[in-house]
UniProtKB/TrEMBL annotation:
InterPro entries: HAD-like_hydrolase_sf, HAD-like_sf, HAD_2, HAD_sf, PGP-like_dom2
Domain of life assignment: Archaea
GO annotation, biological process: DNA repair
Protein name: HAD family hydrolase
Keywords: Hydrolase
Amino acid sequence: MIRGILLDLDKTLVNVLDYVDYCSALRALFKHLGREVNADVPETYWGVCASKAMETLVALSGSVEWDTASNIIEEYEIKGAGASTPMHGLGRFMDEVGKFDKKAIVTLLGPKATKIVIQIHKINVDAVVSRSRDFKPKPYPDQVLQALKLLDIRPSEAVMVGDSEWDEKAAVSAGVCFIGVTNRRPVHHFKSSIAVVEDLHGACEVLRALRKNSLVC
């Protein structure tokens, strides 16, 4: 039985990405680092600058440079968070999410930006796992596993909803079923989802099917 719902935040529940100047953030980050770093991450649709910014944080995970790098990026995310807009169908979707016992946000956004978004859009969850030096970020499973720990549920009792291939890899690596939201993009690279839908309305229907046991992970 599915008891818990894990939710990506940016471009799943709320559009922050389009309001963050990740290109300026990336320039500031590379100026600080004095070099470019790389990591093996899934292909996704965020755009060159946002994708590279997140890839850099993955590459720096566990290093002494991570905190400063994350803070540089979050300065720009905070500005975007204040201008963020809800994804289409957010209200109806969160009503369906509320019918499950437990729910958590699992996001690559920094903690300050995450808090702003959750407060502005009145998103009610039991736990929040934003990016942190304590966990390898998505696409690693660490954030997902931390959310499960905070909710006190097993991987088999959870499903995750997200818009990116990074979310999918993190969820599946943690043993959690995944619902992919394409946001109507014509090309995606979801490979291991129990369902792939266009938007939150579609995700709502999948959650309803899981709740009524007409769909199983």
